[in-house]
UniProtKB/TrEMBL annotation:
Residues 23-170 form the Glycosyltransferase 2-like domain. It holds the Pfam family Glycos_transf_2. This is Glycosyltransferase. InterPro entries: Glyco_trans_2-like (IPR001173), Nucleotide-diphossugar_trans (IPR029044). Gene3D superfamilies: Spore Coat Polysaccharide Biosynthesis Protein SpsA, Chain A.
Length: 291
């Protein structure tokens, strides 16, 4: 969390005319073909809103790769975007990889907007996703953060909203073999809020995934952005809980994405170690729940 973000929130005022949307994507050697697909889907989802002069949108991409060749390729991709959907497309090249949250805070410090979309470089937005999300945030000014519904490449549900976790559930997700997870299927289903997804209605939720977060920019600034103490993992849960002190956090089943990412357990032991460290920090901050 940074004081500069909190201070800028005090000077950020509402806009009764044209609404402003800022979009931030953080890359770390991200696949550029997939990133191009993400930006294509972003532009398609913005097209109708921009054509009706209903919204002005900007994109900021933060490159945490710290690699000159990759950075040049990424900048070339961004410079090739010439459509009317984005009024500006900015590149920030990090000199040090300080983590997902810090990079998003760098992007947030550069923008002035009413709504802010935190987007992973492996997410595709439905054509009506942004319109539906912005409409909900306009109609419900008390809501500070909204999460979409999601599927993976095969069309299987991805449960992007969660109930407060226990150490047991997180250990099962990170380390347990598939047969052991089945023994605790009820616990897993409850944690993943599968009942809520099946109900297919707007609902208030405790925690949302950082792969796609629609947030009120002033609320994000007042919260101080992401906590810099989390290098990777759980920074989205921590932010969800801090934002929830300002207003409701909603799940929006009418807003759909495809998320091509996966669980930390599929990414090797280094990611599992980071997952465990961040999980410990989360519980130390917000309270331990063992089972």
């Amino acid at each position: 969390m940074t004081n500069s973000l909190r201070q800028s929130a005090d000077s950020e005022s509402g806009n009764n005319g044209l609404q402003r949307l800022s979009v931030a994507i953080v890359c770390f050697h991200s696949d550029l073909v997939m990133l191009a697909n993400t930006i294509d889907s972003l532009e398609r989802s913005l097209a109708e809103l921009v054509a009706s002069a209903d919204i002005d949108a900007t994109l900021t991409v933060v490159d945490n790769s710290c690699n000159k060749d990759y950075g040049q390729s990424l900048q070339g991709l961004l410079e090739s975007r010439s459509g009317p959907e984005l009024s500006s497309c900015s590149y920030i090249g990090a000199t040090v990889n300080s983590g997902f949250g810090v990079a998003h805070n760098q992007a947030l410090e550069q923008v002035g907007s009413d709504y802010h979309l935190i987007l992973n470089p492996d997410v595709e937005l439905a054509a009506d996703a942004i319109g539906a999300a912005v409409a909900h945030l306009r109609e419900h000014p008390e809501v500070v953060l909204a999460s979409p519904s999601g599927t993976n490449d095969q069309g299987d549900n991805q449960y992007l909203c969660k109930r407060y976790p226990s150490v047991l559930v997180l250990a099962l997700r990170a380390f347990a073999p598939q047969f052991l997870r089945k023994w605790f299927a009820g616990r897993m289903y409850e944690y993943e809020m599968r009942d809520m997804v099946a109900a297919d209605v707007v609902a208030q939720v405790p925690l949302v995934s950082g792969c796609c977060m629609f947030v009120k920019t002033d609320a994000m600034r007042r919260a101080g952005g992401f906590c810099a103490d989390y290098f990777m993992y759980f920074e989205d849960y921590d932010l969800s809980l801090r934002l929830a002190t300002q207003g409701p956090v909603h799940f929006l089943p009418q807003v759909h994405i495809i998320h091509h990412g996966g669980y930390s357990a599929r990414k090797g032991w280094k990611h599992i170690v980071m997952f465990a460290r961040s999980g410990r920090r989360f519980f130390q901050t917000h309270g331990w729940r063992w089972i």
